[in-house]
Amino acid sequence: MADSQVPHQLLRVAKEVDAKLEAVLEEQRRHWTEVDPRLSEAIDELERMTTSGGKRLRAGFCYWAWRGAALLDRGSGPQIGSESLELEEDLIIRVGAAFEFLHVFALIHDDIMDNSSTRRGATTVHVANGRRLTESNWQGEARRYGEGVAILVGDLGHVYADQMIGQVDRRARRIWDELRIELNLGQYLDMRAAAAGELDHETARQVATFKTALYTIVRPLQLGASLHHDPGPTLLAKLDRFGRPLGRAFQLRDDALGLIGDEKWLGKPVGDDLREGKPTEIVSFALDEASAAQRSVLDQIGRRDLSSTEVADIVEVLTATGALGRNEEEIQRLLQEAHQALADLPFDEVTLDAFGALADYVAARDR
Amino acid sequence: MADSQVPHQLLRVAKEVDAKLEAVLEEQRRHWTEVDPRLSEAIDELERMTTSGGKRLRAGFCYWAWRGAALLDRGSGPQIGSESLELEEDLIIRVGAAFEFLHVFALIHDDIMDNSSTRRGATTVHVANGRRLTESNWQGEARRYGEGVAILVGDLGHVYADQMIGQVDRRARRIWDELRIELNLGQYLDMRAAAAGELDHETARQVATFKTALYTIVRPLQLGASLHHDPGPTLLAKLDRFGRPLGRAFQLRDDALGLIGDEKWLGKPVGDDLREGKPTEIVSFALDEASAAQRSVLDQIGRRDLSSTEVADIVEVLTATGALGRNEEEIQRLLQEAHQALADLPFDEVTLDAFGALADYVAARDR
């Protein structure tokens, strides 16, 4: 996390959320080790993935939306720094930890589906535990065992996420349930479209909306804004108008980094999205413009055994068709749209500055 | 569910819970089909597993514990049939549906870990969706795709379970969180012990305690009793003393049925627990008594390719060592222990009758 690109408004939240995550995992490990030391292995694996990095973006968006909405009451309600808001600040950090546990759950399960061997530079749970079976000369198939452990460790993260969210009221919980349904259905659509070779623009946008715009930005904003009091439909809609284009920009940036990023920073191999045949807007842009010869190169997308040369050939076509350039233009356009929506939010200057910094970071990061 | 063995006290609850499950799934399907018809496929799969049978035991134990605890207030509080209890009855059916969604989630994920091809007589989610990829000539590996879909469909069931539990207070929610952690850690221990060949008695009992006694009986009872008002530690402890031996009896019955049951009723192949090398008390009993020759037969446990003849040889040793007989004796002893604890519960006659019928059913069922 010692990354000069990360805005201080995010670092501050991430630090507190990290401390909360550590405290929960430490307490759980102590408890379950007493019951049976073998049980703590599952918690160790969850901790390994939770503490191996992560930008804590969802916690950040949630925190600043809470702060903005709470300060709207400035005239009549409590001030930042007052005792009642300090109590609430503890709650919002718990909610931030909930988002991060949920994200680790989703990543551990995604890594099985994508058969990724590294995540945030660390060996993924299913790969590490498959190796453990082999190295320990245990019975059964390494792949099935490793994936089984990863399913359970992910499920455990899901439970801890929900435990952290436990104290919020019904209004905020509805948003929490909704975002979890969207997350799972978005991932289903992503995987299904990759298998069926549905690489059209509409599918790519639908996946980006569910998996990134709603899950990463809009819902954390709305949930945060709902924690202090009922924000009402107007504020929720304004947060949506800010978060939705920003979320799409985030996904387009992620897609581009997956093609032309630096593996050292990405923590995963470049080109894997192409091997998995993921529906991305970049590919759909290229399919719009490709010549017959270029199309035959693009038809290789989805082949699990693409070499790095073949990946480079596809990236060449994505560049030549203008798809990568169009992707970059879209990111800038969407970021501008988000900044315009930001100007319409009724929050204080400090909160708006934080959102601006988060928005630029999300759209411009190189890792 | 049209099964003459099932007590009417369970059928009555199961019917209402089934209607709630159907209503939730129908509403979700309608909503998501409008967004994108492909999304509803995930809900269809969840529905297929939710409606393919299931005894609704957890909902049953929860319901009757709620009723017993609510009627303890008979003198001062509301009567069964009164308006406030009718409102609460709607909540308790939602909670019952939560238990059943959670159970379907656990089964779908377990079936991946055990590579089971049928469940409740239906094709499992990972097998059905792996076939879909092959039959549709989609890209990628059938196994990875099928298992990926099953992970997501299970995760979706987990979310719906939480959504159904959403309205309970903090006291009941703590029990809900605890039982989900126990479920996942119990399953981890089960899988790990099977891989490592840890078939000792203590491990088998630990797994049975987590995966069955607590998850299926003790926690549903305690959660049910907590819904009306704070039951206090004495009642929670009494429910534990009833539920824990009964839960172990349930697991021992399940283990025996997995060896000598009727595949037609079981909905899964006989001997799979032996092929998976599951730690069961029966096997640990046999290991206590086995001669060197018998032990060499038992050493085959955990071989994934055991033929039905080899399974029969192992069952022969389990019989000859007296392990199956001892298992049966244990079930009877545990059932008696549960009935004694039942006599100590402060509930009305109708509730106690229901618990008695549920207990006998759980320990004596042949499917």
The fold-level CATH name of chain A is Farnesyl Diphosphate Synthase
Largest interface: A-B, 57 and 56 residues
Q: How many E strands of chain A? A: 2
Number of domains of chain A: 1
The gyration radius over C-alpha positions of chain A equals: 21 Å
- Tell me the overall shape of chain A: flat
Termini gap of chain A: 12 Å
Unreliable parts of chain A: none
CATH class of chain A: Mainly Alpha
Name of the CATH superfamily of chain A: Farnesyl Diphosphate Synthase
Trace the largest sheet of chain A across and list its strands: 1-2
List the helices and strands and how they pair.
The structure is a homodimer of 367-residue chains.
Chain A (H helix, E strand, L loop, with lengths): L7 H28 L4 H11 L6 H15 L11 H32 L3 E2 L2 E2 L1 H11 L6 H24 L4 H27 L4 H26 L5 H29 L2 H4 L5 H5 L4 H9 L2 H7 L9 H13 L2 H21 L5 H16 L3
Antiparallel strand pairs in A: 1-2
Helix pairs in contact in A: 1-2, 1-3, 1-4, 2-6, 3-4, 3-8, 3-16, 4-6, 5-6, 7-8, 8-9, 9-15, 9-16, 12-15, 15-16
Brief descriptors of the model:
homodimer; 367 residues; mainly alpha; Farnesyl Diphosphate Synthase; two-stranded antiparallel ribbon; 16 helices; 76% helix
